């Protein structure tokens, strides 16, 4: 498998997702870290994006609801180089009808070497890393595309 290096920009694009029983945990975490998140591009699946925007005042771009295709939408954005960090507070004790989509999302996150946090502790570690506030280079699978563009239209090569 071929790999290539891309530069992750200083201004990250962060996907925020939470299962129903974890939405309060994500809301609490985002509220606590509002100052660290506000200078980055935030997006989230349906209800989660709306809840976070309403309760924190942060601009969180809404995508489709997770069970209706939002998890797959995020996965596609990851494979296009449009997401740098995925914060997904999932519920490991509750079977979801879209569990295969969640598993696929975790797989694609790992395949494309993006930072992934599934709980508040790991998310705290990500935000406290010096790499969070700077640009850095990662190696990803080369999927044959000649050009990556993130949400702000910056070229990644």
Model description:
This protein is α/β, with parallel strands linked by helices. It has helices at residues 23-32, 34-37, 46-56, 70-79, 99-111, 120-128; strands at 3-8, 13-18, 41-44, 60-62, 85-89, 115-117, 136-141, 148-149, 155-156. The protein has a single domain (3-143), classed as Rossmann fold (3-Layer(aba) Sandwich). The strands form 3 sheets. Strands 4-3-2-5-6 form a 5-stranded parallel sheet, sandwiched between helices. Strand 8 (148-149) and strand 9 (155-156) form a beta hairpin. The radius of gyration is 15 Å and the shape is globular. The chain starts with a strand and ends with a strand. 29% of the residues are buried. Mean pLDDT is 87; it is low at 146-157.
Oligomer: single chain
Mean pLDDT: 87
Poorly predicted tracts of residues: 146-157
Residue fraction in strands: 15-25%
What are the main properties of this structure?
disordered C terminus; two-stranded antiparallel ribbon; Rossmann fold; 157 residues; single chain; alpha/beta; 9 strands; 6 helices; five-stranded parallel sheet; 36% helix
Give the gist of this structure.
36% of the residues lie in helices and 24% in strands.
């Amino acid at each position: 498998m071929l790999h290539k290096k891309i530069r992750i920009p200083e201004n990250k694009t962060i996907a925020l997702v939470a299962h129903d029983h974890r939405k309060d945990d994500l809301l609490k975490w985002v509220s606590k870290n509002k100052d660290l998140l506000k200078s980055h591009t935030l997006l989230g699946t349906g209800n989660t994006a709306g809840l976070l925007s309403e309760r924190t005042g942060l601009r969180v771009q809404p995508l489709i609801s997770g069970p209706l295709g939002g998890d797959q939408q995020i996965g596609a954005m990851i494979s296009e180089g449009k997401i740098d960090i995925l914060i997904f507070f999932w519920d490991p004790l509750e079977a979801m009808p879209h569990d295969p989509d969640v598993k696929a999302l975790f797989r694609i996150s790992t395949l494309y070497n993006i930072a992934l946090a599934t709980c508040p502790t790991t998310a705290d570690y990500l935000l406290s890393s010096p790499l969070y506030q700077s640009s850095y280079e990662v190696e990803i699978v080369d999927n044959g595309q000649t050009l990556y563009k993130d949400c702000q239209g910056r070229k990644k090569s």
